[in-house]
């Protein structure tokens, strides 16, 4: 199956297009999706960022499970403000 990820700025997609094809003979998804991206929102107002994930051509997709099906995985969203 295929898993895709995108970053939302408020209710708008700020960064999208990352997708990876993962397949495991045990039926599990294995792998990482890494995004490094510089946003230039042109505002001094507070902004809320979120990560979204989607699945394609598979019945289910689960985030943060290890290969034994335990909830031991980790998702990180690290933001840094860069002064001009």
Write up what this structure looks like.
The protein has 84 residues and is an all-beta fold. It is 0% helix and 31% strand. It has strands at 2-9, 12-21, 49-56. The chain has a 3-stranded antiparallel β-sheet, with no helix packed on it. A hairpin with a 2-residue loop joins strand 1 and strand 2 (12-21). The radius of gyration is 15 Å and the shape is elongated.
Shape category:
elongated
The overall strand count is 3
The secondary-structure element order is EEE
Q: How far apart, in Å, are the first and last alpha carbons?
A: 41 Å
β content, as a range?
Answer: 25-35%
Strand order in space, largest sheet: 2-1-3
Q: Roughly how much helix do the residues carry, as a percent range?
A: under 10%
In round numbers, the mean pLDDT is: 74
């Amino acid at each position: 199956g295929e898993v895709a990820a995108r970053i939302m700025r408020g209710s708008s997609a700020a960064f999208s297009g990352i997708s990876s094809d993962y397949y495991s003979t045990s039926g599990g998804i294995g792998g990482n999706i890494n995004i490094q991206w510089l946003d230039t929102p042109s505002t001094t107002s507070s902004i809320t960022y979120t990560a979204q994930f989607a699945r394609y051509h598979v019945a289910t997709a689960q985030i943060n499970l290890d290969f034994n099906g335990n909830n031991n995985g980790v998702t990180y969203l690290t933001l840094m403000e860069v002064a001009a």
